[in-house]
Specification:
The chain is built from ten helices and 23 strands. By secondary structure, it is an alpha+beta fold. Strands 5, 6, 7, 14, 15, 16, 17, 18 and 19 form a nine-stranded mixed β-sheet that branches. It has an eight-stranded mixed β-sheet with strand order 9-2-1-13-21-20-22-23, covered by helices on one side. Strands 3-8-4 form a three-stranded antiparallel β-sheet. It is globular. The chain starts with a strand and ends with a strand. The chain binds flavin-adenine dinucleotide (FAD). Flavin-adenine dinucleotide binds next to α1, β3, β14, β19 and α9.
């Protein structure tokens, strides 16, 4: 079996690893000059891995094992990148009770934190008066760039893997021909397109037109020197949409909020427009004690969502094994180990292991001039 994987972000790399583990040969194709690409969405300082998704029990169930999955990937790749910082999800007490019961049922280590304890344990943060929280102690953050480098290093040493950095794919046909910008054509028994926010260029127009590109500004905050150890924090602020990736391994915390996410036409680099930097400075001025606006630098990231939902989208193109992870959404990093297993299963013609994500477990099937759902 030979599988062509387009894209060397977290999805492409971990799918390639899974294919090799299953005995397949892999062509890994990347438009950037290096594998992994430093401009991939995934190639960032950190990504949060947690089980609890407030108000979404299906997602919480699907995410219950992800911390263990990431530790298994870390063990396999042989380099450290998972940090068990804990993840704190803040919310109204009445809602958190049910969330805590669900986590307990799922076997996820979690403890309630009262409003009084929050202020005492995390003096660097400002909470609103009715805030309580759940601390998932085994959850944490992945040093994302380190994880990608570890996967690339693991793959590079294998005779079954051919890497094609600096190779832009311009077309993928329904029969599985992967056409490169220079005119070369790669082919295999299966193809997975995992091109992140650039995916629309490789998709049939009706599929591409349903995808929305999101751009989000984040602040990197250097004013954390006297903070006590901090978990990742979600649900901050009156709108409960602000989050913080914790300082870890000498890396400063990252701050952002859903209010700093907007729809845009095209990826336009990582530099943040001033207005969005100022927007986040305004918001975190009220959420971090003694906030120092001069201690921030801002950067932007991108991801695609499917118009009908905020989540991901998997599409089978044509009648052969050609798959596109068309929209990776704002949460695919944490799910990458289970997504990669499922994508490798599909590529190799095995029954796919469920991910718990409906759009992946029941993907869409697109055949030119015809589109249908199948299980
Ligand atoms: C601000 C922000 C915060 C986030 N926080 C989290 C979080 O805490 N937890 C979480 O789970 N997720 C988070 N996400 C989402 C997560 O980072 C993404 O869903 C995930 O990284 C996508 O990985 P990917 O491999 O699909 O895409 P990418 O990492 O973007 O990789 C795609 C690769 O494909 C290559 N490529 C593209 N087009 C072509 C082509 N034509 N030919 C060849 N190569 C091509 C690109 O160069 C790139 O290397 C966040 C996203 C953002 C923007």
């Amino acid at each position: 079996m030979r599988v062509v994987v387009v894209g060397s972000g977290v999805i492409g790399l971990l799918t390639a690893v899974e294919c090799v583990l299953a005995g397949a040969e892999v062509d890994l194709v990347e438009q950037a000059g290096t594998i992994p690409s430093t401009s991939a969405t995934s190639y960032d300082r950190q990504r949060v891995v947690r089980a609890l998704h407030r108000g979404d029990p299906r997602l919480t169930r699907a995410a219950a094992g992800l911390a263990a999955d990431w530790r298994a990937v870390e063990l396999l790749l042989g380099r450290p990148f998972y940090h068990r910082t804990g993840v704190l999800t803040v919310g109204p007490a009445a809602e958190l009770q049910a969330e805590l019961a669900l986590l307990t049922e799922l076997g996820v280590a979690a403890e309630p934190i009262t409003a009084a304890s929050l202020a005492a344990r995390y003096p660097q943060l400002r909470f609103t008066h009715d805030d309580q929280a759940i601390l998932e102690s085994a959850a944490g953050t992945v040093l994302a760039d380190q994880a990608l480098l570890a996967a690339a290093w693991w793959l590079r040493g294998r005779p079954e893997v051919l890497c094609y950095p600096g190779s832009q794919v311009i077309r993928v046909t329904e029969s599985g021909a992967v056409v490169l910008a220079g005119g070369d054509v790669l082919g295999g028994d299966a193809v997975l397109v995992a091109a992140g926010p650039w995916s629309r260029a490789l998709l049939p127009i009706p599929v591409a037109n349903r995808l929305t590109l999101k751009r989000q500004t984040m602040l990197s905050y250097q004013g954390f020197a006297d903070w006590p150890a901090a978990p990742a924090v979600l649900g901050l602020g009156n709108r409960r949409d602000a989050w913080l990736m914790p300082p870890v391994a000498g890396r400063p915390p990252r701050l952002s909020a859903a209010s700093a996410c907007r729809s845009v036409a095209l990826p336009a680099g990582a530099e943040s427009p001033d207005e969005w930097r100022e927007h986040l400075i305004g918001r975190f001025g009220g959420l971090i004690s003694d906030f120092e606006p001069a201690a921030v630098t801002a950067t932007d990231g991108y991801y695609l969502t499917e118009e009908a939902g905020q989540g991901p989208l998997l599409v089978q193109l044509g009648e052969s094994r050609v798959w596109a992870y068309a929209a990776c959404g704002g949460m695919s990093f944490k799910f990458a180990p289970v997504l990669a297993r499922a994508f490798a299963d599909r590529a190799l013609g095995r029954p796919p292991r469920p991910t718990g994500l409906a759009a992946v477990d029941q993907p869409e099937h697109y055949v030119a001039a015809r589109r249908e759902l199948f299980i």
